[in-house]
Specification:
Layout (H helix, E strand, L loop, with lengths): L13 H11 L5 H16 L4 H14 L9 H46 L4 H10 L7 E8 L9 H13 L6 E5 L2 E7 L3 H14 L4 E4 L3 E2 L1 H21 L5 E3 L5 H6 L2 H12 L10 H12 L4 H8 L3 H15 L6 H16 L8
Parallel strand pairs: 4-6
Antiparallel strand pairs: 1-3, 1-4, 1-5, 2-3
Length: 356
């Protein structure tokens, strides 16, 4: 494969140095090495490829090998040593410049992500910066957030594995993958749900069964923040509600924010409907767990008993005890909705562990 051509200006006085070394047998001076490093830095900042630059030096060595000098073994060894010194110093300057560029890019990327997900900075300026990272914030975007058993950073193997899988599968898509507060975050165009589904699949596998939440698509820079917040709320909700689904969609959970929008009203409902359960032996928690399992199993007594590892007779006793204490019959359709809403509210408000 042909090596891309680069300008001879990055050779500097390389050929002269070789001729001088061949004549004297000396090594490169400190100033000469510093000059080689400076040329390497300039070449890196100009966007040249190191492979092409090394090829340029080797080609110059072959073409302009000092002919006036004696061709004895000592002279040849001195010239080759000078080539090694010169190319090594040049590559050192090149790599230093590249590392500085990478660090600047990482810092700019992290600052952009922080501003984007926290809704900071001027929205117009944020949209301009987004194009640098492949996002067009004038369009709708959706955000998926994955949490695992431990906190992750961008340098960990899990984020790199997930990112590599997505970029391999969707190489032409405008996707941003990062970490935030120990979680994996994927921002994708709102009209490409397959990207976030694949992210959820890869993240679930890479985090050893971690949970993923997907926010709804929203338009504009503020839309990314809104979708991100929805995904975080879904993860928090799953924790409080003991939801088993590995992948949660904010669109499927909208009823829960509605139920808690008036927190005081929900607290009053929980107190009035479930407060009497605290009079039971062992407190309210065992009977509240019974109601939760009963409603989650579709009010099927046999399935509820199996989930609670009780006999059907023991379950029937508990349901009757609930009816006696609350005055509401869980098996009665007229009472069921109020009781189930109160149970959901209790889980959302972490009652009875927390006072209302």
């Amino acid at each position: 494969m042909a090596v891309p051509e680069v300008s001879d200006e990055y050779l500097g006085d390389y050929v002269r140095i070789l001729a001088d070394v061949a004549a004297t047998g000396r090594r490169l001076t400190r100033d000469e090495l510093d000059t080689r490093r400076l040329l390497g830095r300039e070449a890196a900042e100009a966007g040249c490829q190191l492979r092409a630059l090394v090829g340029l030096h080797l080609a110059a060595t072959r073409t302009d090998w000092p002919r006036a000098a004696s061709a004895d073994e000592a002279s040849t060894g001195s010239v080759l040593a000078a080539v090694e010194q010169a190319v090594d110093a040049f590559a050192e300057g090149f790599e230093r410049a590249q590392r500085l560029t990478v660090r600047r890019e990482e810092a700019a990327r992290r600052e952009f992500i922080d501003d984007l997900l926290y809704g900071r900075s001027d929205l117009g300026r944020l949209a301009e910066r987004a194009t640098r990272f492949g996002l067009r914030l004038s369009r709708a975007h959706a955000v998926a957030v994955a949490s695992g058993p431990e906190a992750y950073t961008e340098t960990d193997s899990v984020p790199r594995t997930v990112e590599a899988a997505l970029l391999t599968r969707f190489s032409g898509r405008k996707i941003l993958i990062t970490t935030k507060d120990g979680r994996l975050v994927c921002i994708a165009p709102g009209g490409q749900p397959d990207v976030l589904r694949y992210f959820a699949k890869q993240s679930h596998a890479a985090t050893d069964g971690g949970r993923v939440a997907v926010g709804r698509p929203h338009r504009g820079p503020g839309g990314v923040v809104q979708s991100y917040d929805e995904a975080l709320d879904a993860l928090d909700l799953a924790e409080r509600m003991d939801l088993d689904d590995p992948v949660l969609y904010a669109a499927d959970l909208l009823v829960y924010p509605v139920l808690t929008r008036d927190r005081q009203a929900m607290a009053d409902l929980v107190r009035s409907q479930l407060g009497p359960l605290q009079q039971a032996r062992g407190g309210a928690e065992p009977l509240l767990q019974t109601l939760t399992a009963y409603f989650d199993s579709g009010c099927v007594a046999a399935e509820t008993a199996r989930r609670l590892q009780l006999s059907v007779r023991a379950l029937t006793y508990r349901l009757e005890r609930i009816r006696q204490l609350t005055g509401a019959d869980p098996s009665d359709p007229m009472h069921r909705y109020t009781l189930q809403t109160a149970v959901i509210g209790a889980r959302l408000l972490d009652w009875p562990a927390k006072d209302l």
